[in-house]
Amino acid sequence: MIDFINAYTEIKESLENRIKNDFLDNETKCTLNYSTGEIVYPCKRRFENIEVRITNTKAIIKNSIHTYFNLKQGIAIGNYTDFSYSDVISSIQQLEKDVNENILDFKVTNLEFGFNIQTSLDAKSILENNFVMYNFDEFSQIDTFKGKGYYKQYNRNQYYVKLYDKALQFQLPCNLLRTEIKIKDSKLLKKFGIFTVKDIYRKECLYQLFSFFLQCFEQINIVDSFSTHEISGDEKKLIELGKSPHYWRGIKQRYSSSSSYYDKIEEYNLLLEKFGLDSLKKELRGLLVNKFEQLIEG
């Protein structure tokens, strides 16, 4: 569920003093002004993968608490495992012990929320061939990492939608798809009731996050693969054309009325439903719902 987190406090004195004291033991990385002998901001210290950064105005804690939990527990190096609600709580409590600081009142500015699901088909193949667009627009970023992964991302002003082959990333012997959103605007987080770290403890906030997550997932245009003999004529042509964002850009430019554009979208979605070309999307949605229900109660 919860993965990357960025949280800060402006009441930084106690944490700053501990971090600076660690500078003498080579645990903290700071810059020293050799003219004055003073430590210059920022100061940084890592607890496993979690970075604690002290600036002249605030103390910041950031990185994947999922990976942090796995490292502390000796489970894995990475975030490809399941990460339940109770694991989230345990990881935050453990981090508080490590930094010797109450971080529950730290203000959250960035948050990742996502799931690893085992799919019936190869995740790279699904991403490459079936995840064709996002809201009938082209993806903002596609990366293969020189054959070591497969990744698609769509950027919004307040958040990113990220989709990638988690099994390929970590060389796992299974089909594992990672679907997540990265919220980078605290105003959006506040709509879900998340102001500070302690709000992550509140299940009602996580339910709201998941509702938003599903809304984002629904906007991914996922089209089943099909054989040429199953569909023919104008319907086959429309399905193929409709898998291209350039086609929809042209449709939008052709019609002066936005309602006509959305009528065409509805017509296309009904065509996919008619021929059962939305079965993969239904399968993935079901897996995501089941995974959330499992983790929130875990």
Structural summary, described in words:
The chain has 298 residues and is of the alpha+beta class. The chain has a domain at 1-103. It contains 11 helices and 12 strands. It has helices at 13-23, 65-73, 85-99, 123-129, 166-170, 186-191, 203-218, 233-241, 245-254, 258-274, 279-296; strands at residues 2-9, 28-33, 38-47, 50-54, 59-64, 107-118, 131-134, 141-143, 151-155, 159-165, 176-183, 220-222. A hairpin with a 3-residue loop joins strand 9 and strand 10 (159-165). Helix 2 (65-73) packs across helix 3 and helix 7 (203-218) packs antiparallel against helix 11. The longest helix has 18 residues, at 279-296.
Quick structural overview:
By secondary structure, this protein is of the alpha+beta class. It has a domain at 1-103.
